[in-house]
Amino acid sequence: MAWLTTHLKTLFASKKPKNPPKRKPPTREEKGKFRATDDDDNAASPNYNIQSSPKRSNSNRSSSTNSSDITDSDLLPIIHYEELHLIPQILTQYPAFYLVGHPLPRPPLPQAKQILTSPDSVKRSLIHPRKSTVRGYNHAKPSGREWWDYTPDNGGTLLTLDDESFRHVTREYFEKSIALLQKICGEFNTTYTENGDKRMVVPTEVMNDIGFSTMRYLRYSPTILERPNVPKVEPPVASSSSSSHSASSSSSKPKEDGYSLPRMEAHTDHGVLTLMTATEPSGLYVWDRNGKIFSAPPIENTVLVIAGDLMSHFTALEGKSIIDDGKHAIGEGTVLPTVHAVVLPKGGAERYSVAVFLRPKRDMVVSKHRVRKESGEIVEQDMTFGRWAEEKGQIRGRRCWMVGQERLSGGQEL
Ligand SMILES: O=C(O)CCC(=O)C(=O)O
Ligand SMILES: [Fe+2]
């Protein structure tokens, strides 16, 4: 811990108190221009400039979640591309941040719409031969959601549309986003120190190789929930009660309560970092380490960045492992994986989103795992990224492993 405390003192503490006073929400005039530090500090160090997100109206917030504790002061920071060095500290304080001034092209939201509104026959042809949920087309109809994962191998020519422009835009956004996320990882390696020397928290292979990274196009829509192919169950012949009729006659329709809105259950992503962008209506929420919820609607010209499980693993206390030591591996410089969920507001609109996941190869060894054999002997076994992610999916409550919200578990397979 000493290495980080000392380093953070040098880098940040003179500019920002350890427990900063709660920020006041910006006034309309300050919209998008609020500074988290006072101006004297900024005069000494003009680079330390965190903008809060512009004030948002309540109409952006879903009325369908229990988000009454979301107030206007719950704003995620906006970081400028020229200030990437702030990100390691920001991610220990906030569950997500918006990045502005970045070199990415326009987000491929029209391409997300194009592929996810293709005829069913086309979608069927894009399903992975081994039904991978992270390559090609998939759907989760009970959640009102469908998605398509880009396959970077073969230059992005597999399980994709026969459309040159679609392929070009998709590939370009993926490659530039991965390069951006890798650059952000580089900032972690210049921020963390050990005995005065820089500590490589993110392995070189993550920064030099696309590994098992992918990009996902998602569509959330009430029309997906309708499941038109599910045969309608006729109500049993009523004896005396008329209520049984009304209950079963709605079986092929989405229920009108909050749980039948298009959604993605709360989860953390397996990888290192995820970059996201979406259309309105938003419905994206992120949790901080104290369980506080932030609404994360799309903001023009920005992308949202969150941390995945592996970032916690990389930034765990030196000599400790999240996998073996659990919470004892968490220090003040440990970035926790961002718990996030999507719940579409009522009203029937569709939402499209794009998520780019920076992940290493599945066979990357993330830990020497200590296991006890039947004889009682303790041996070391390699824990690979792929196996770790798979185990997480099998353990109830682990999809949001830091929060342990079993109620909300769900999410994606790797
Ligand atoms: O649709 C979104 O904005 C989030 C998608 C997501 O969290 C995921 O695919 O892991
Ligand atoms: Fe996610």
From TrEMBL:
InterPro entries given in the database record: IPNS-like_FE2OG_OXY, IPNS-like_sf, Iron_ascorbate_oxido_reductase, Oxoglu/Fe-dep_dioxygenase_dom
Basic and acidic residues: bias regions: 26-37, 253-262
Listed Pfam families: 2OG-FeII_Oxy
Compositional bias ranges of the Basic residues kind: 15-25
Gene3D superfamilies: B-lactam Antibiotic, Isopenicillin N Synthase, Chain (2.60.120.330)
Family: Belongs to the iron/ascorbate-dependent oxidoreductase family.
Name of the protein in question: Fe2OG dioxygenase domain-containing protein
